[in-house]
Amino acid sequence: MEGFSGRGYGTGGPDNRPLFGETSARDRIINLVVGGLTSLLLVVTLISAFVFPQLPPKPVNVFLAFCISLCCISAGILIYWYRQGDLEPKFRNLIYYILFSIVMLCICANLYFHEVG
Questions:
Q1: What is the C-alpha separation between 15 and 6, in angstroms, rounded?
Q2: Are 83 and 53 in contact (CB under 8 A)?
Q3: pTM for this predicted structure
Q4: Exposed, middle or buried: residue 42 (CB in 10 Å: 0-12, 13-18, 19+)?
Q5: Which of 80, 75, 83 lies closest to 22 in space, CA to CA?
Q6: So what's the pLDDT on residue 116?
Q7: Which tens digits make up the pLDDT trace of 18-50?
Q8: Residue 99 near residue 38 (C-beta atoms within 8 A)
Q9: What does the DSSP assignment read for 64-106?
């Protein structure tokens, strides 16, 4: 039994991964950076939808910003569930993918609002 004390389940070494609800400092920094950049780009997109290219805003711009906001609501719910411990850690990659998709949508929307291309 002494030979089994330092082994993980099928990993060949000790399993030092955090359990539910525990995050490393590196994970917290990544979460804050990704969340902060996504939030900043979303705010810029929402402001651009109502201000550019002229006042009053175009209905298409407002509709596109509304659709992006709906995507953010679903991402926010997933993040809330993940932080509560209701989702397994493997869902973190799905959350990152959804946030990346939102960033890409915001970039496309801003390019459209500012008539680039």
A1: 9
A2: no
A3: 0.74
A4: buried
A5: 83
A6: 87
A7: 555 556 788 788 888 888 899 999 999 999 999
A8: yes
A9: HHHHHHHHHHHHHHHHHHHHHT-S-TTHHHHHHHHHHHHHHHH
